[in-house]
Design goal:
The complex is a heterodimer of chains A (366) and B (445). With 366 residues, chain A is mostly helical. Chain A is built from 14 helices and no strands. Chain A has one domain: M75 peptidase, HXXE motif (A middle domain of Talin 1), CATH 1.20.1420. Chain B is built from ten helices and 14 strands. Chain B is globular. Classes of the chains: A mainly alpha (366), B alpha+beta (445). Chain A: InterPro entries: Imelysin-like, Imelysin-like_IrpA, Imelysin_sf.
Chain lengths: 366, 445
């Protein structure tokens, strides 16, 4: 989602509390930031996050984008209802890791790759112009087109049509060309983002190392472990705010279906749910179905503690509340019968947001 | 300004540990006064001011939405009007996470956030202190266009590396940009064309800088260097579109914009091809309403400034003293005070932006050779340093200086010339440990 997160009032830090983040008082303490021996806010927390959550999520995204590209090629080569269905499923499968990555939209993806994959609304005027002109869709030509006529939602528009009504016979040869060019670029972008996390590039270390070496000498991006830990929780807070107060609130308040993302595939609520899963993955320190392999935010909170039980309950409540809203979401926003369900989901997500802001963030301050 | 410019630094204010009175420790400096927020994450430039009034929460959110809005060509129900030629399609697609852009160029998947300003050295501008447009390019090369329209030109960027060495033998490499402009229509560029490459600066704290009284900035001016400290400093003089008069300039790399509303309208017009009440269509209509323009302006005025970190770190404290001792503070003024401003949150604040908002001659190596308002081809406005250490947290691989040539804060210092030459040479002469301390201090801002 390209619509930037709405700002948050981080009211947990009173202005005059000099110790608000990492500012200690005055003393002979030579260490700017120090890990007390029993602190769970340590390098392992950061490394687990990077290696067990972020990198596997981007790896999965790169794989699924590759599979989407292959499914689109198969469809274009021998169009059939079955192949179209497979392409649709591949698109939905690729959405899962992308939306599950939105709980950590920082690092390389922030350098222009997010809008390259996921701009909304679509620029249908220019998209239609390209469908109508005879230009050859080389990678260079595609590079000159705006993000708002490429990416996930262009593929969605081309293969689902409005509300998934598109039949294979309705896809024109030109649409196939555009679909292939877009899917190929998506694969390339997702691969680049994954690569930037795991491999050096342009003289820069892999971003995984930038994060994992937080607090080590010379790390200018994350000069302390606490800065990296705060980054992790800020990502959670950002996406929860975005889902409750952006992705749901904006179209719900305006009643404008055009504001609803992933509306062609009726995938909006799945998107939102995977955003909550993203938070869950970060909190637990592993992806769904994987086993825990290191310290995570859950350990900082205390496994089995009252707060841990509360957080896991609120995550589950958010997922349940989203499941109760009927798709198509773009119609539910104007359906009086769904208003309660939508508000219940917003409340559940806002409650979770408040818990992270009010009770988890303070655990990461010194 | 309550302190005399001649006395240099307000060191006492930030000496870290000390006492204001017996038993009363100094309050730590709050970079943006009451607007200051405690956030050192990649979202540090995206938080509302800490003192944002409840009634301004909604305007701030509307401004956030305006800043994020992706424009598309008309007709569209949402955000129409992009182009026909432009550089980018939203505020945030240049000011990534409200910070800088990336120093990359060309038609890659990352998009270009660098801009190229152009003009001719001779001719008749259409207003005083104006520039002379280049036929076919105007004042800014718009290298993107809506489908079916030719962009003005294509741009490519390459870097030239320059090896250097500290007196202690440590080596470093600097790089400077080479930009190639290829007009789409195949025409030749005027041989005497002036060109300036610009990276988007961060957008937080701008309301505070707008609220510094002009008298304060005038009091800091020393155009003829009467105090013989080698530092001149003067305000730019630029054209105010609304009043059609010459006024002091404040914003932009050369302080070539007088107000945030004009700067925002210029960005809509030049960068996105969007008309506003300040820069309307020929028939007087406009694509971006006064309300939306005001939303975007208010957003930039009401963002929080990130607090400094590591205040109690001895290395940071040592670096801070060196920063002052080297003379950096002569231009990068630590403390300013704001006065009355329509935005209550930024009025009457003591702030620590590390800028004097004035133009200084930075020498031939940094020069773009393109005058802008009253600024010469070698003058640049002192950029604020607050939040400096968060630059690559907010945006990995971002760069420093007006064109992003500096990959690190250290490289940025090493590019300083002209009036800043003594300070740069002083930095070069430091021991590796001392240089590290200066950099750690700057990284803590």
């Amino acid at each position: 989602m390209k619509r930037m997160s709405l700002p948050l009032r981080l009211a947990f830090a009173p202005a005059l509390l000099s110790g608000a983040l990492f500012l200690g008082g005055c003393g002979d303490d030579a260490e700017p930031c120090c890990e007390s021996p029993d602190s769970k806010v340590n390098s392992e927390l950061i490394i687990t996050f990077a290696d067990q959550v972020v990198v596997p999520t981007y790896a999965k995204l790169a794989t699924r984008m590759t599979e989407l590209d292959a499914a689109c090629k198969a469809l274009a080569t021998a169009p059939s209802a079955e192949k179209l269905n497979a392409a649709k499923q591949a698109w939905q499968a690729a959405r899962v890791p992308w939306e599950q990555s939105e709980g950590f939209l920082f690092g390389p993806v922030a350098g222009g790759y997010d809008p390259a994959m996921d701009s909304w609304p679509l620029n249908l005027v220019d998209l239609q112009k390209v469908l109508n002109n005879g230009d050859v869709l080389t990678p260079e030509y595609m590079g000159n087109l705006e993000n708002s006529q490429k990416g996930f939602h262009t593929v969605e528009f081309l293969i689902f049509g409005d509300g998934g009504t598109k039949t294979v016979g309705q896809i024109t040869p030109r649409e196939f060309d555009y679909l292939l060019a877009t899917a190929t670029e998506l694969k390339r972008v997702a691969t680049v983002v994954h690569t930037l996390w795991i491999q050096p590039s342009d003289g820069n270390p892999p971003f995984r190392d930038t994060l994992a070496t937080a607090g080590k000498a010379g790390n200018t991006a994350y000069p302390s472990v606490h800065a990296a830990a705060q980054e992790i929780v800020t990502g959670i807070v950002e996406i929860l705010d975005e889902v409750a107060n952006g992705k749901i609130a904006v179209p719900f308040d305006s009643g404008d279906p055009n504001e609803v993302e992933s509306q062609f595939a009726y995938n909006s609520l799945s998107d939102f749910t995977n955003n909550i899963r993203s938070v869950e993955n970060v909190y637990l320190g592993h992806l769904q179905g994987e086993t825990k392999k290191g310290t995570s935010l859950q350990d900082v909170v205390g496994v089995g503690s009252a707060l841990d039980v509360k957080i896991r309950g609120q995550i589950a409540a958010s997922v349940t509340a989203l499941a109760a809203i009927p798709e198509p979401f773009r119609e539910s926003i104007n359906d009086a019968a769904s208003a309660d369900e939508i508000q219940t989901a917003q409340t559940a997500i806002r409650t979770l947001l408040e818990t992270f802001q009010g009770e988890v963030q303070p655990l990461l301050t010194k | 300004m309550r302190r005399a410019a001649m006395w240099g630094a307000l060191l006492l204010w930030t000496a870290g540990c000390g006492e204001e009175a017996p038993g009363v420790p100094f309050a730590p400096p709050r970079a943006g006064g009451a607007t200051t927020i405690d956030d050192r994450s990649s979202l540090a430039f995206m938080q509302p001011a800490n003192n944002l009034l409840p009634e301004n929460d909604r305007p701030h959110r509307e401004g956030d939405a305006a800043f994020a809005a992706i424009f598309v060509p008309a007709p569209s129900r949402i955000n129409p009007g992009l182009g026909p030629t432009f550089n980018n399609d939203s505020c945030n697609n240049c000011h990534l996470r409200n910070g800088r852009g990336l120093p990359v160029m060309g038609h890659n998947i990352q998009r270009t956030q660098l801009l190229v300003r152009v003009s001719l050295p001779h001719g008749t501008p259409d207003h005083p202190r104006g520039a002379v447009p280049v036929p076919g390019l105007g004042f800014q090369v718009q290298d993107r266009a809506t489908v079916g329209v030719a962009p003005e030109a294509s741009l490519s960027l390459s870097w030239v590396e320059h090896a250097g060495q500290y007196p202690d033998g440590a080596s470093y490499t600097l790089r400077s940009p080479r930009v190639r402009i290829t007009p789409t229509d195949g025409s030749a560029l005027p041989p005497d064309m002036l060109m300036s490459l610009r990276l988007p600066p961060p957008v937080f704290g701008l309301g505070l800088l707008e609220a510094v009284p002009v008298e304060t900035l005038r009091s800091l001016e020393d155009p003829d260097d009467r105090n013989s400290d080698g530092i001149s400093g003067r305000m730019n003089e630029v054209w105010d579109v609304a009043t059609r008069t010459l006024v002091p300039g404040r914003f932009g790399w050369k302080a070539n914009s007088p107000t945030l509303v004009q700067q925002s309208a210029e960005a809509y017009f030049n960068d996105m091809g969007l008309t506003t009440p300040l820069f309307p269509e020929a028939d007087g209509t406009f694509e971006v309403s006064a309300d939306v323009l005001q939303d975007a302006v208010f957003y930039s005025q009401s963002l929080g400034v990130p607090a400094r970190t590591f205040l109690d770190d001895p290395t940071v404290q040592r670096g801070e003293k060196l920063f002052s001792k080297l003379g950096c503070e002569a231009c990068h003024r630590e403390t300013l005070e704001t006065g009355a401003h329509p935005v209550a949150e930024v009025s009457w604040q003591r702030i620590h932006p590390y800028t004097d908002m004035l133009l200084h001659d930075m020498g031939p190596e940094l020069a773009d050779g393109r005058p802008d308002g009253a600024a010469t081809g070698t003058e640049w406005r002192t950029p604020p340093l607050w939040g400096l250490g968060l630059t690559q947290t907010v945006l990995p691989y971002s760069g420093f200086l007006h064109d992003g040539r500096a990959r690190t804060i250290e490289e940025a210092i090493l590019w300083h010339g002209g009036e800043a030459l003594p300070a740069r040479d002083g930095f070069r002469a430091l021991s590796a440990d001392e240089r590290g301390a200066v950099l750690r201090f700057l990284g803590s801002l």
